[in-house]
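User: Teach me something about this protein's shape.
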Amino acid sequence: MDKTIDKTEKKRELTVFVFLAGVLFPILSVLVVSGYGFLVWIYQMFAGPPGPS
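Assistant: First, the predicted structure itself:
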């Protein structure tokens, strides 16, 4: 009985890992980078572009 539980648990762990590494983290990284770019864009709309004044 322990072997079937171990097999089921290992399969679930692998599924969760693939979901995290292959789906969730890439989506979160794209959202973080694009969110930062959006914030910089909004800031530059009010403060002006960087460079000498």
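Now, about its shape. The radius of gyration is 22 Å. The longest helix spans residues 2-47. If you'd like, I can walk through any region in more detail.
User: That's plenty for now, thanks!
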